[in-house]
Amino acid sequence: xxxxxxxxxxxxxxxxxxxxxxxxxxxxxxxxxxxxxxxxxxxxxxxxxxxxxxxxxxxxxxxxxxxxxxxxxxxxxxxxxxxxxxxxxxxxxxxxxxxxxxxxxxxxxxxxxxxxxxxxxxxxxxxxxxxxxxxxxxxxxxxxxxxxxxxxxxxxxxxxxxxxxxxxxxxxxxxxxxxxxxxxxxxxxxxxxxxxxxxxxxxxxxxxxxxxxxxxxxxxxxxxxxxxxxxxxxxxxxxxxxxxxxxxxxxxxxxxxxxxxxxxxxxxxxxxxxxxxxxxxxxxxxxxxxxxxxxxxxxxxxxxxxxxxxxxxxxxxxxxxxxxxxxxxxxxxxxxxxxxxxxxxxxxxxxxxxxxxxxxxxxxxxxxxxxxxxxxxxxxxxxxxxxxxxxxxxxxxxxxxxxxxxxxxxxxxxxxxxxxxxxxxxxxxxxxxxxxxxxxxxxxxxxxxxxxxxxxxxxxxxxxxxxxxxxxxxxxxxxxxx
Length: 482
Description:
Layout: H1 9-27, H2 33-53, H3 69-96, H4 101-119, H5 123-141, H6 148-179, H7 184-188, H8 190-193, H9 198-216, H10 225-231, H11 234-258, H12 261-286, H13 292-311, H14 319-343, H15 361-364, H16 366-380, H17 386-400, H18 404-430, H19 444-462, H20 465-481
Helix pairs in contact: 1-2, 1-4, 2-3, 2-4, 3-4, 3-11, 3-14, 3-19, 4-5, 4-11, 5-6, 5-11, 6-9, 6-10, 10-11, 10-13, 11-13, 11-14, 12-13, 12-18, 13-14, 13-17, 13-18, 14-16, 14-17, 14-19, 14-20, 16-18, 16-19, 17-19
């Protein structure tokens, strides 16, 4: 284990905050929901501040958990994702009657799972973090006990996640059998130590990739995504779509940087095909969607394709672009799903999901509709938003690595995506309002979350140099440690 214990303070805060909320809910059943909300928000903020300000004097690169700047960057990002999700959930959960300890406690334990996944230097920590995250999501997705769609979504996610975990477990076990090490770096280096076992090592990595592919919605492992996104509460969908995928990509980037050249050379053709399929299928399928949560589900699949495309260039200087876009993707996708939930906050049944329900919202709800439009424009990759700078960096990295055909596929699919993103914008601003449709007023927490997201999207689009400078330093440090 690492000897620099102060670096573990964010982990302790998240675990302690979640445990405190569960204890408070167990012993004081009539505790006001506002107290639990405040405890969860303070815990997430404290974890982020601790990761930002506490710099380990000697972070271990050989222990169980990474405490370096790379892991701390993602810890801050997960804390921000969790805090914004809590803000979006305050009114949504209170109106629907599930703003209890299980909601806020599981959000913190889910964030803890993300931190462990992103910082794992040992396969045991990686698996335990992923299972902790998955267990939290099983319950959060089905948290609306009286809603059939939510229960169905939770069951589907549980079944598909269990299958993915089985592939992942078998792949890790096979890799350990060959290498004799549970350390990520040591097990991957077995390809150089035991070159005769390279086929077995490649098989184990393929099984691990299948497990990660399920969790990150890569094609053809994506079929659960639209159903689960549609059935889950919209703010929980935001947490699932951003936090869990960013955590797994953080781990995937580490694995890619640690992979020896013989292993990486064998992996590249398969990664190329997965990236191309994910971009094409995600964008083309989104064209036909009339339900906005399903549309954004396929959009999320396509975004994973862009990230996976750039994964091929990670050893040729593409790591900073990936880190930048992961942060940007988390902000804009979280904002889109969170605002969808805010439009539905006064309803007792399912979310406002039909595209026709958004007609005229640009005039009846100018603030929230405007922020949602900015999030969609950023997801489409148009200036002056952060999504434009992120996509520009991704395609630049891919082209510099000579993956020209894959870059062309990505650019063409990005152009196609303009149609379905603007379907929502057109409905809000160029279509008459649906007769009799009412939109509930949003509380202060939703307005605060929307303002934070709007500022981040525009700031990172107009002045991205600060974040680019940070991710350049993080990428250089990770490359040296690899």
